[in-house]
């Protein structure tokens, strides 16, 4: 392939979508309809050249779809379907009696018409209860949201304020965070949510739950913890549930009803709620089916968090839609991960770049048989081409890269079955998903640039978010009048349509696949009485294959700038300050640089591109863990 720099091709960087059907009805009904079988309505509406990629056999009810990697407990396809309907029945006509919002609730002036039904919040690691609860909420017509279990009380309070969940499912340790977060809410919101007394808080014990290990799981009694009345989540699975039929969405109703709210960090600071409709979620799976090299009877390792778009769209939803068997992993440990991949005879792995480095370099890998693995997908953050080459040379496994955001439900994917084909795509994120439009537009003029030229990446598809939750300013800033979503990423297209991401307009930091807002950390640092000013940018850690936040801090006490013990004490005080406010992936692991000034524009905007040129005293506050034996 000719290099982008030397190509003589001169035509606009716009990728037109290939025609694909979109999903209909609830995402639950669509995913369980086995839509990718030959002869289905989805298959019939698919272009002829894509119909060859189809499932040949129905998914048997007894087939294991999810398996707990620690206990071996399993969920069959049939049981998951039945239990999800039971959860839906309990949420709407049993324990809680929640009701989906009426169609008349759609207001074009609010969330661009999205219908937000009562929200159910899952605050769990990957586990079998997460699976059944998620599908149960999708079946019910209520709105699901899920949050990272390591979020701090302050971060949880922000999510509670924006989404106002009608029910919460968490763990015993997570309950403490919610109780602290609850005290940060306004008295009016506390009274409305009523978590301490309403009976709308449920607990999961991921280490000892018997769900999936027995036909009828034991329900723990209602209890009082820290003054809150809480119930075992399995009260939502009574032995004799009321029959439940999922709602039917006709016309464009499925394109308005909010199915899922993800939480995405932005440059303005706190997380934004990304609303995905039932149509967006189902249609994204159609795109994944045709863009990936996955087929039927795949065996996957469920390590990517299900509360994150990468794990949601590529693992959790794929288990049901493709009939794959997913072995869940709640927390990463190199030995456990490799053991599960070996014992489950995994056919495809999904991970963030640090695990690709493990496969490329760790001597641990030599002790495991990964011959069943046909391919891998790396997402969430950039991955060096050299690592992809090392993994192929060492293991003969192809690692393919995808690009997407919570807001787009996916966007591009390398589609290679051989190393020779993949080599031509290295450095890129591959071509656009079917039914996805891409455009590279000039940051200066707003018009499309030519192929090979850099500009902002814009995406338009049925899979895109409809709105940010109750955030009209961010929504207006992110969409053009004709429906393009502005990603804030800088990239370019080659003549074959492969997308290259070259920079970030929005300055987000990617820590092992998670987005970190520099502005959010700057606000927290400047809230310390020790800090006069602060700027945050990223530093790339080669061995860990990830970015980390690095803070450039102006202290009030100028003696700190001289270094020594006083500087160390200052930096560690800020470390503790940040650890008390933010989840671990947001911690300043790139160190503190103590400077006399933060570069700013005449208007007062931090010039983050100049931060790395600032001279100052560098203090590392986290010890480097030895990794030679990994």
From TrEMBL:
Any matching Pfam family: AMP-binding_C
InterPro entries: AMP-bd_C, AMP-bd_C_sf, AMP-binding_CS, AMP-dep_synth/lig_dom, ANL_N_sf
GO biological process: secondary metabolic process
Species per Swiss-Prot/TrEMBL record: Rhodotorula toruloides (Yeast)
Domain AMP-dependent synthetase/ligase, first and last residues per copy: 118-468
SUPFAM superfamilies documented for this protein: Acetyl-CoA synthetase-like
Name by which UniProt lists this protein: 4-coumarate-CoA igase
Residue ranges annotated for the AMP-binding enzyme C-terminal domain, each copy included: 520-605
MF (Gene Ontology): CoA-ligase activity
């Amino acid at each position: 392939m000719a290099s982008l720099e030397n190509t003589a091709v001169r035509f606009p960087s716009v990728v037109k979508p290939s025609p694909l059907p979109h999903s209909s009805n609830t995402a639950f009904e669509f995913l369980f309809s086995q839509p990718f079988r030959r002869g289905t309505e989805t298959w019939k509406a698919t272009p002829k050249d894509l119909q060859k990629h189809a499932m040949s056999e129905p998914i048997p009810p007894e087939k294991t779809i999810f398996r707990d990697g620690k206990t071996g407990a399993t969920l069959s396809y049939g049981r998951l379907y039945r239990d999800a309907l039971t959860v839906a029945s309990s949420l709407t006509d049993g324990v809680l009696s929640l009701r989906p919002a009426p169609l008349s609730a759609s207001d074009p002036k609010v969330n661009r018409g999205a219908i937000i039904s009562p929200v159910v919040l899952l605050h769990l690691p990957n586990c079998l209860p997460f699976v059944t609860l998620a599908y149960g909420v999708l079946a019910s017509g209520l709105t699901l949201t899920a949050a990272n279990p390591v979020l701090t009380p302050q971060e949880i309070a922000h999510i509670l304020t924006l989404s106002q969940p009608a029910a919460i499912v968490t763990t015993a340790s997570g309950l403490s965070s919610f109780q602290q977060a609850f005290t940060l809410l306004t008295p009016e919101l506390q009274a409305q949510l009523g978590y301490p007394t309403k009976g709308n808080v449920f607990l999961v014990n991921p280490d000892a739950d018997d769900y999936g290990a027995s036909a009828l799981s034991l329900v723990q009694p209602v209890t009082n913890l820290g003054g809150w009345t809480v119930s075992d989540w399995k009260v939502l699975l009574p032995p004799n549930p009321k029959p439940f039929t999922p709602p039917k969405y006709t016309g464009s109703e499925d394109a308005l009803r909010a199915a899922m709210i993800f939480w995405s960090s932005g440059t303005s600071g706190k997380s934004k709620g990304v609303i995905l409709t039932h149509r967006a979620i189902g249609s994204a799976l159609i795109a994944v089916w045709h863009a990936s090299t996955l087929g039927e009877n795949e065996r996957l390792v469920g390590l990517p968090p299900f509360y994150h778009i990468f794990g949601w769209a590529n693992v959790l939803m794929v288990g049901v839609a493709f009939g794959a068997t997913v072995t869940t992993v709640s927390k990463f440990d190199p030995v456990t991960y490799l053991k599960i991949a070996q014992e489950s005879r995994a056919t495809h792995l999904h991970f963030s770049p640090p695990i690709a480095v493990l496969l490329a370099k760790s001597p641990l890998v030599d002790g495991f048989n990964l011959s069943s693995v046909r391919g891998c997908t790396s997402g969430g953050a950039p991955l060096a081409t050299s690592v992809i080459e090392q993994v192929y040379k060492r293991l003969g496994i192809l690692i393919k890269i995808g690009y997407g955001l919570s807001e787009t439900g996916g966007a591009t994917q390398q589609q290679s079955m051989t190393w020779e084909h993949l080599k031509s795509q290295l450095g890129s994120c591959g071509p656009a998903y079917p039914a996805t439009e891409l455009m590279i537009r000039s940051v200066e003029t707003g018009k499309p640039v030519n192929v090979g030229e850099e500009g902002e990446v814009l995406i338009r598809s049925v899979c895109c978010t409809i709105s940010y939750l109750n955030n009209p300013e961010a929504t207006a800033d992110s969409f053009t009048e004709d429906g393009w979503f502005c990603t804030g990423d800088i990239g370019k297209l080659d003549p074959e349509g492969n997308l290259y991401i070259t920079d970030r307009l929005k300055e987000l930091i990617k820590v092992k696949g998670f987005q970190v807002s520099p502005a959010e950390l700057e606000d927290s640092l400047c809230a310390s009485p020790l800090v006069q000013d602060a700027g945050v940018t990223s530093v790339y850690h080669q061995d860990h294959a990830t970015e980390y936040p690095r803070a450039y801090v102006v202290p009030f006490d100028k003696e700190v700038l001289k270094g020594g013990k006083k500087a160390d004490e200052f930096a560690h005080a800020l470390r503790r300050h940040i650890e008390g406010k933010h989840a671990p992936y947001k911690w300043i692991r790139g160190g503190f640089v103590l400077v006399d000034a933060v570069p700013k524009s005449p208007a007062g905007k931090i010039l983050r591109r100049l931060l790395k040129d600032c001279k100052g005293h560098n203090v590392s506050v986290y010890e480097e863990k030895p990794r030679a034996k990994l």
